[in-house]
Amino acid sequence: MILLTMLGIYCLAGLLFGVAFFLRGYAVLEPGARGASIVTRLLWTPASIALWPYLLKMWIGSRP
Fold it and tell me: Is the pLDDT of residue 12 over 70?
């Protein structure tokens, strides 16, 4: 039961991060993604939800 709770918390945090990353993060980490269509960003979103700790670390590190 504890494992399922932890997995749920991880997924919820990933979902919240995924929304923010969908709106701003792609362009910050990859300048070539600035012109990406909404469909392309939607295709990238599941990966950003799954890999949110790594992407968050990169996103924070990319700020001046």
Answer: yes
Q: Tell me the pLDDT tens digit for each residue of 24-63.
A: 888 788 887 788 888 988 898 899 999 999 999 998 887 6
Structural domain including 25 reads 2-61
**Which residue in the block uniquely carries the two structure tokens 């269509």?**
37
Q: Cα separation of 16 and 24, whole Å?
A: 13
CA distance 41 to 58: 18
Contact status, residue 55 vs residue 29, Cβ threshold 8 Å: yes
Number of domains the chain is built from: 1
pLDDT for position 62: 77
